[in-house]
Amino acid sequence: MRENCVNIDFLSKSENEFLSRAFVGSFALLADPTAAEVADIKTAVSEAVTNAIVHGYKDTTGVIYISCRLFGDELTVSVKDNGKGIDDVKKAMEPLYTTSKDAERSGMGFTVMETFMDSVKVDSIVGVGTKITMTKRIGRNRI
User: Rounded to an integer, what distance in angstroms lies between the CA atom of residue 108 and that of residue 94?
Assistant: First the structure.
């Protein structure tokens, strides 16, 4: 079984969210995904990166780290920040829960990630940061 890994890091600026989508979407192409699978992966990564920017590094700039691993038909993407961390991960993963007072934030980021990926794991320590690890099997729905 073939394995491939790649990493990238960038500043937590909103304009870099597009970079993260393009980077992970391009890497996923190694597994010969469908267009829908690439769209799902890019959407989940976008949500994870946006959470790091908006919540992890709220009112400051830090570094976001993305690690991608492809082993056979399984893609694993980790998005990590060294931001403020999450007080209550279980609560934060509830649909519509948000700590943001910004009316544009719906509190659906983790729900979107869970919808588009096969698994989502969140590890977070307050004052240290958060790591979101998502996996998706490519080609699972093909005939």
Answer: 8
Q: Are 8 and 21 in contact (CB under 8 A)?
A: no
What average pLDDT does this structure show over 92-110?
64
Q: Is the pLDDT of residue 112 over 90?
A: no
Catalytic residue among 47, 69, 74, 141: 47
pLDDT digits (tens, 9 = 90+) for 18-74: 999 999 999 999 999 999 999 999 999 999 999 999 999 988 999 999 999 999 999
Q: Give me the catalytic one of 17, 21, 37, 51.
A: 51
For residue 110, name the pLDDT band (cuts at 50, 70, 90): confident
For residues 113 and 47, is the Cβ–Cβ distance under 8 A? yes
Let me know if 47 is a catalytic residue.
Answer: yes
Q: Is 140 a catalytic residue?
A: no
Residue of 74, 105, 114, 137 marked active site: 105
Give catalytic status of residue 105 as yes or no. Answer: yes
Per DSSP, helices labelled H in the chain are: 16-28, 35-51, 89-92, 109-116
